[in-house]
Each structure stands twice: as C-alpha cells, then as structure tokens.
Design brief:
- This protein has 226 residues and is mainly alpha-helical.
- It has a single domain, classed as Up-down Bundle (Ferritin).
- Helix content is 66%, strand content 0%.
- It is built from eight helices and no strands.
- It has helices at 2-5, 11-19, 66-95, 99-125, 136-152, 157-185, 189-213, 218-225.
- It is elongated and about 65 Å long.
- The structure holds fe (ii) ion (FE2).
- Fe (ii) ion binds at residues 108, 112, 169, 172, 202, 205.
C-alpha cells in the first residue's frame, strides 16, 4: 500500500494537484475545493458522527455502526465504478486512433489500477468485504459513449471519448470528495489521506483532458474523413 501512496506525480501535475484547484481549466468552475491542499485530509479536524457515544475519544477511528456501514457501501460502489472505468479506459485507449489520447487514457488506466487497490485497502482496514455494489451511473457512462460513437460515426471518436472522459472525471471527483468527508467524520484519517491521492489523480487527469480538448476541432476531423 505504501508504494501506491507514494506514487510520484510529474511536476506539471503536482502543482495542480497540490493547490486543489483547476487552474487553467475554467475560471467559472465553482467546485468546492478541499482546504489545505494535498495531505490536508490527514490534518483536518475529525468531526464525529452525531450517533457516536459521547464517551468515545474523538481521535478513535470508528469500525462499526451505521455511519461506517454507509461509508463501506459507498466504497464498494466506487470500487465497482473504478473497475468499470478500468475496462472502459483499456478499450478506449486501444480504439482512440490518436497517439496522444491513447497515451493519456493508458496512463490513467494504470492510475486507476492503483485507485482500485486503494479502495480495497480501505475496505480491508474497515474489516469489510470487497464485494461490489453496482453503480448504474458508471454503466451508463460507458453505454452512452458507445451509443454516441455508433450514432455519429468513428470519425468523431476522439472528441466523443474526450468529452465522455471529462464527464467521468467530474463525476469521480465528486465521489471522492464525498468519500473523503465520510472517512474524516468517522475518524478514518489514514483512509481519507489515501483516497485523497486518488482524488488528486482524477483532478490531474481532468486538467490534462481539458487541455487536450482545446486542441480538437471536430470540423477538421470530418473534413479529413470526407
Ligand atoms: Fe478517473
């Protein structure tokens, strides 16, 4: 687990991940940011679940009860999501037909493997099984993307894949933000810090995709194919 959490982020990604904002993506992005940047999950104050016994020390990680079960449930849904996206990234990287997009998707596929492992580690730390709960939103992302390629034609595969992956990364960012807050509220600070690594990878991928999207002109793709 230690290796996964020490993944080296290239310098150009590190700045974005550490600042916790989407610099260069869009000035109108009002997504709430985690305060304190990378690693803040480990230093934020722990807020206990209201149902927690008042006698329970504030810094004792909870391992049972409804709040833990809710968190575990969300973790298993995210595990399902990441596994769906793992397959999606593999297929899309193969079919991209564009070297730059292939490299971006393949690189993020490798990161996603670590994200899957982090989620399994979190469930293991909670003493919960890694049995997955379906996330129908994740399935819909894949289905909608495939339908768009079938409907519009493979000449537009690159912009379709880029737009789809941008939507996916926004979705994953929101999911990890929620998971990190849940982990902190039940005192599972090390799990929150590990999930923050995945959240930062999603954000860095979103920034790369947004930059890449500015280089794509669907009109030229259609002209080229004609
Ligand atoms: Fe992702």
């Amino acid at each position: 687990m230690a290796e996964r959490n020490k993944r080296r982020i290239p310098a150009n990604e590190k700045e974005t991940a550490n600042t916790g904002n989407l610099a260069g993506v869009g000035e109108n992005d009002k997504r709430p940011q985690m305060s304190g940047g990378a690693g803040s999950a480990g230093s934020s104050p722990v807020v206990l679940d209201p149902n927690t016994s008042a006698s329970q020390p504030q810094n004792t990680p909870m391992t049972s009860g409804p709040a833990v079960q809710l968190f575990a449930d969300e973790l298993t849904k995210m595990l399902y999501t990441e596994n769906v996206l793992l397959k999606m990234l593999r297929v899309q990287a193969e079919q991209a037909g564009d070297a730059d997009l292939h490299d971006q998707l393949e690189r993020h596929r490798q990161q996603t493997e670590h994200q899957v492992a982090r989620l399994k580690d979190a469930l293991h730390e909670l003493g919960k099984s890694s049995e997955q709960i379906a996330c129908h939103v994740a399935d819909a992302f894949v289905r909608d993307t495939n339908e768009a390629v079938n409907r519009l034609g493979s000449d537009l595969r690159v912009p379709i894949y880029v737009a789809a992956n941008i939507r996916v990364e926004h979705f994953e960012l929101g999911a990890y933000d929620s998971l990190i807050e849940m982990a902190k509220k039940i005192g599972q600070i090390s799990i929150a810090a590990n999930l923050k690594n995945s959240r930062d990878e999603e954000e860095a991928q979103l920034v790369r995709l947004m930059r890449f999207s500015t280089t794509i002109d669907p009109r030229k793709l259609i002209e080229k194919a004609a």
